[in-house]
Amino acid sequence: MGRMHADEHAIDTALVRRLVDGQFPAWADRPITALASGGTVNAVYRLGADLTVRLPLTAGGASDIAKERRALSALGELPVAVPPVVAVGEPAEGYPWPWAVHGWLDGSPALEGREAPARDLAEFVLALRANRADGPPAYRGQSLSTVDMATRRAIDELSRTDEVFDPAAALAVWAEALAAPQWTAPPSWVHADLMPSNLLLRDGRLSGVLDWATAGLGDPACDLIPAWNLLTAAGREIFRDAVGADDATWERGRGRALSMAVIQLPYYRHTNPVISANARYVLTELGCRPAP
User: Fold this and answer.
1) Thinking of the domain 13-105, which architecture would CATH place it in?
2) pTM, two decimal places
């Protein structure tokens, strides 16, 4: 992983050690290990066998600590595990923002294009939608029109920097998504960032879902993105049938997956191989790039 953001704070194991030892001395004897991650908001370290430390990389991500804590406290029963917030640390040792300690969840991150439990994923999405608690607006939970300009700029940039990208195909997908009827029912609970690296698998089943700072109330279409960023064509049909997506919601979900991919690929092409590979996979599944 390279430096992803111009305003990214330098974080290393020594800093995490000082923060933990200074604020939570009961954990001073626990080893700290940096974790490889496709995440773009936090640096993640394992603390002993059953905890993780997550430190925002930028000022923009610092507010996510409180957002995630509120979202997790509002969740009802779900069919998979979510990471409990064990403690919240304060700025110190030259590190300027709050940081969090979470419980460790066993499992391996899902990988795009591999066999994935489409029905488990649909069961999770439906269970989350059924939550009736009040909540904040979800990140990415608004109309696609709010990212229209950013998406078109990204398509234009990719048309000039990625020789196998098909901008006409991308614009066609985007136009269909924008033309789809909007969600008019009350907003539902959504996770809003169901990237493969946030989905944990054990024994071929979905066992946990990470990173809840984006969660809240919004258009349920934004939780359909695994149809294109994770599943194969066969799994996509199983997922759609199990989640009961109508045509309009499916088209909006397709547009959301496209928007995320075209924005992510040029930004993370040289710094985050996990995210950039996933963006390429999405664009291939949407017919905007040839299969490798």
Assistant:
1) 2-Layer Sandwich (3.30)
2) 0.94
